[in-house]
Amino acid sequence: MRSVWLAASFVAMMGPAVALGGEIELSGALGYNWSPHSIATLTSSSSPFDSRTDTLSWDGASFDPAPYYTVRLTYWSESLADWGFGIDYTHAKAVAKRAESGVDDTYSWLEFTDGLNLITANVFHKWDWDAARVYVGGGAGIAVPHVEIDTTAGSIIGETSTREAQIAGPAIQLVAGASYEVFPGVRAFGEYKVAYSVNDTVLGGGVATFSTNLVNHQIVGGITIAINDGSGL
């Protein structure tokens, strides 16, 4: 369902962009992602409102099903030379290293593997040299993680299980990359992305909240296709 919604959003954007003039690119990539340590807080939603704060280590699980991937639709304006605007969907991942973090007594499952989903609106600037291109960009949007958290009977909130996607908070990202036109209208690209997301989630139907802010580093490679200009972008 998420993929259908994303495709529909891309199609909805294409019409106005073509009417304004300019070029549209559709990009897809796989890659490797990882997150450094983060501070996480579990808080009971009922009296006595107990809370527990831990420092968590994370594994990106980039190549486990479903693997890390990112999809982007970019519109390069005719009137604003070398400036582009895009919608970016990133399926990043984060699995807590529970034993290493010392939280096995509280969590029997703790991850965002379906995934740490980020949707951002972005602005890009590019520099072209014949078939080569370098670009940078940044944007903001929302984090929609698929919350997969089980707490133990010995935790401050008792035994709970949560398996659902939630709109968890704002997200921002920065992008730097390079591409090369290998065929007319087709580019191979590689880039580095870093995203920061606020993940304020609800557990067990409202019995508690789990909050952590994650930095997610991404190294990706993929293909860009010009979908409204066969001469290449």
From TrEMBL:
<protein>
    <submittedName>
        <fullName>Outer membrane protein beta-barrel domain</fullName>
    </submittedName>
</protein>
<dbReference type="InterPro" id="IPR011250">
    <property type="entry name" value="OMP/PagP_B-barrel"/>
</dbReference>
